[in-house]
Amino acid sequence: MNIAHNIQELKKSIPDHVRIVTVSKMQPVSALNEAYQAGNRIFGENKTRELVLKHAQLPSDIHWHFIGHLQSNKVKYLASFISLIHSIDSLNLLKEVNKEAFKYNRVIDCLLQFHIASEETKFGLDMAEARLILESDEYKKMANISIAGVMGMSSFSDDMNLVRQEFRNLHDYFVTLKSSYFTHSDSFKVLSMGMSGDYQIAIEEGSNMVRIGTAVFGERQY
Ligand SMILES: *Cc1c(COP(=O)(O)O)cnc(C)c1O
Fold first, then answer.
1. Is 67 near ligand 1, meaning CB less than 6 Å away?
2. Which of 59-68, 104-113, 120-129, 160-169 has the lowest mean pLDDT?
3. 39: Cβ–Cβ under 8 A, 6 or more apart, which residues?
4. How far apart are the C-alpha atoms of 179 and 167, rounded to whole Å?
5. Confidence class of residue 119 from pLDDT cuts 50, 70 and 90?
6. Hey, whose CA ends up nearest to atom 10 of ligand 1?
């Protein structure tokens, strides 16, 4: 597996305005180092423990993104350094991030994760739940988080029409939230959607941040 080559090919196939999160979960530090040498600076992980260990071993100019389901009691391990949390799926979790970020005098960028797939197992908000968060007094008082956009995962399916429709829905949510709650701020701008198998469709549907693991590193070793 030639990681540098994969990254080059990936970059050729993706427009400049789309940021690439290199999803390095379950990959050894040596593989992350190769991606780093090839120029990648944004890495995505979905387990706090694994992320913390890798953060300690890799260069400090890496932007670490958390992309998995996040338990409130684990936020404290990430709060001092995390660049972006893609997976806010409750007001409680957001409160916890705000509280921990305050301790480090930071403002942590967060994405609201939407449930767009047909599978019940996936996490995420619907539009009504997102509105409840953004209209709550608690949210309005939070000074140590910034909602930077939305994230979603499509169905695990070969039906690319279904996947496209799900991305289209997420794009609609993004536009609606922006015009309802963030008209006067530039900070709400990230539409995180697309993985190795569907990033081209995601970009056609407006994604500006793709999360790519397998297409960079090859299959994960479970
Ligand atoms: C694992 C994972 C990815 C990357 O998946 P690939 O198919 O390997 O590109 C992207 N997003 C999330 C949330 C993930 O858990």
1. yes
2. 120-129
3. 7
4. 18
5. confident
6. 211
Q: Where are the beta strands (DSSP E) in 59-168?
A: 63-66, 84-88, 108-114, 145-152
Domain 3-217 architecture: Alpha-Beta Barrel (3.20)
Q: 86 C-alpha to center of ligand 1: Å? A: 12
Is residue 218 within 8 Å of 5, Cβ to Cβ?
no
| Cβ 27 under 6 angstroms from ligand 1 | no
- Domain-wise residue ranges, the chain: 3-217
pLDDT confidence band for 1 (50 / 70 / 90): low
Taking CA atoms only, the protein residue closest to ligand 1 atom 15 is 68
What's the 122 CA to ligand 1 centre distance in angstroms? Answer: 13
CB of 125 closer than 6 angstroms to any ligand 1 atom: no
Mean pLDDT computed over 3-31: 97
- Per-residue pLDDT at 39: 96
